[in-house]
Amino acid sequence: MLFTHLVIYVCAYFGLFTAIFFLLTYFENRKEMADPVVENEGFPFISIIIPVYNEEKIIKKTINSVLNLDYPKNRYEIIVVDDGSTDSTYEEVKSLRLKNIHVFRKENGGKGSAMNLGIKKAKGEFIVSLDADSVVSKGALKKMIGYFKDREIAAVTSSLNLYKPKSLLLKLQWVEFMLGIFLRKIFSLNEAIHVIPGPFSIYRKSFFKKHGGFDEHNLTEDTEIAMRIQAKGYKIRNSISANVYAKQPSSFKGILSQRLRWYYGFVKNSAHYKCLFPPKRWDSLALLILPAAFVSIVLVIIAAFVFFYLNLSYLKNYLIQLSVVNFDIIQSLFNIKLNYIIEIVRSFFTNPFIIFMFIGIILTFILVWLAKHESKDKRNMIGSFIFFILTYWLFFAFWWLSVLVWKGVFRRKIKWGPRYY
Q1: Judging by beta carbons within 10 Å of its beta carbon (0-12, 13-18, 19+), is residue 151 exposed, middle or buried?
Q2: pTM score, whole prediction
């Protein structure tokens, strides 16, 4: 029982500390939420690279969203790299017959190799990576490019949102992505972005020339490049209002495959870039953001075990009570005294776990609301939020346990899924 209370209090204080830190960062930097303004004569030439693999059904929609960008049409090019597709993706892109669209074919080698080929072919001063299953909002590029006035900035990330979440699992991810929108901006304000999402992120091309392209053998090349940028002493910024909408896997198996890759890639890249931790580095990234990521993993897994242990204990006690009345459930209900019910209600509302849980729900709601407000997302997500609160922490614990079992116990190899998720 002492261990249970210890877990509850540690999780509660850790959650409260990080949430309050994020909120204080937000309110102290309200003026920095706005994107830098770029004058008409200051638009640099941009190369937008779209690596594709078997995307014949959706590639035109993605390209059309790029063509509709509120950015001078003579100041950007679109480079589509077909990474060994076995469908008619290449023909679909070629059929567009537009001057500023270039399409190249190569043998299948993964997203990193496709991006590297695109970078070699690119004429732009800046490189934009865009996943083939994503749709860009009209003003995204203009909102992001102004950050590069600071020569120390090597990359700028967008506000990554979910495209038309309909199923419960997609709605769960929608709230998760909304929290990610808020946190990525907070990380940006603390010089602590350690993952650059694939959908519509901008890089200074000179960084690739000096420090090499994407790691073609890395499961999470977006995490690796972000940590490399941090390790080399450059900055990464975020535009919370530059919206891009990405499709996500809707099946349990698809999500699990994606998370195995994401999570294992995060751990592996963190181990590789030890220079981002003390004693090599003493800043928000090293002292708070990265350690907090690992602490949260451990705490959620322990909390999940405690949760199931307590509920099994309650079930056991209830079954013992039922055995007294020969498992007559109706009679057991009649035997419950009013004083007993009052005691249950009283203990429920004075239980520290319940109190901290409600505080956590309120703080999470505030973070999600701020993300919606800053990204100007008008969609109703109350139902999605309720489902998220009830289930996400269990999913999160299961995904991480799966990584530990898959790699630590069975020593199995984690691979890319059938698409570039």
Answers
A1: exposed
A2: 0.89
